[in-house]
Design goal:
8-stranded antiparallel barrel
Length: about 200
């Protein structure tokens, strides 16, 4: 193999790493779109998410499919995790968690995209998929309040050490996220939950 062939091979490998095809029924996404925007219209205010199709293509596309299918219309933020309800947790974190509407039938689980592979980290405002075991994430997602390195690959929050699949970040509405986190709760359950009235994909 000469140098030209080697350089071409490396270029193709790099392109293949970032190439992706996300098919969302009813939505026409531009080819190889790196970032999609999603707005959540909650009863506490509007939250805007930048969804990273370039670095976490499987997880990001999975989320967009749920948005397009109406999973989060009349969905809700139902869980708040913070210092006053994590007093006995060995590895405390700070997040709020969203759920699809109760009648929605979830799709097949998506494979875990580990942060060691995506290079996305659980920083303040990061949006990530909830899960119990690797490769079982469906529609539940959470938003980080403050940096949460224990949710990255190798972190201790999940005993398996595989971390969670970060796929986006809040670009507008972080004060609303903080307000939701501070809401009335019984244990980790918001009382009442904060309704998501609608979720929409915004194509640039």
């Amino acid at each position: 193999m000469n140098r030209v062939q080697l350089a071409l091979g490396i270029a193709l490998l790099i392109l293949s790493r970032f190439a992706h095809s996300c098919e969302v029924p009813g939505v026409r996404l531009p080819p190889a779109l790196p970032i999609a925007r999603v707005t959540l219209d909650t009863e506490a205010g509007e939250i805007a998410i930048a969804v990273d199709l370039k670095h976490a293509p499987l997880t990001a596309c999975n989320f967009l499919k749920y948005v397009a299918a109406g999973a989060y219309s009349v969905g809700y933020f139902g869980r708040t995790v913070r210092s006053d309800n994590q007093t006995t947790a060995p590895v405390p974190i700070a997040v709020i968690q969203a759920y699809p509407n109760k009648d929605f039938v979830v799709f097949a689980p998506v494979a875990l995209e580990r942060t060691k592979d995506t290079n996305l980290r659980h920083l303040d405002g990061t949006v990530s998929m909830a899960r119990k075991s690797p490769d079982d994430a469906t529609a539940k997602f959470f938003i980080c309040i403050g940096d949460q390195p224990e949710l990255d690959f190798g972190g201790r929050r999940n005993p398996d050490g595989q971390g969670f699949a970060a796929f986006g970040k809040i670009v507008r509405g972080m004060p609303i996220v903080q307000r939701i986190q501070a809401g009335a709760a019984e244990g980790e359950q918001l009382t009442p939950p904060v309704t998501i009235r609608g979720a929409h994909i915004v194509i640039p």
